[in-house]
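Subject line: Sequence and fold of a protein, written as structure tokens
Body of memo: The sequence and its backbone structure tokens, given next.
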Amino acid sequence: ATIYLLSPQTKIVISDVDGTITRSDVLGHIYPRVGVDWSHMGVTALHSSITANGYQMLYLTARGIGMATTTREYLSSLSQKGETLPTGPCLL
């Protein structure tokens, strides 16, 4: 587990997971589990640009608590053209 301690001055950008990072809500749950990339192209570059401009990413999802581990693993493993998603809290 990771605990994020942010200062009151931290600028936060909230990103939904399903339908924003993934291309759809339902298939975004299923396809990554069987090895199919179902993410929007360029999402890692976009999120990396956001953090390069001084913002902290916060990921938000309506997935059930039972999917917490797989969701965090998906976010940390997503890679496009050698670029990964920036680290950040994931709220379920």
Remarks:
- DSSP finds three helices and five strands in the chain.
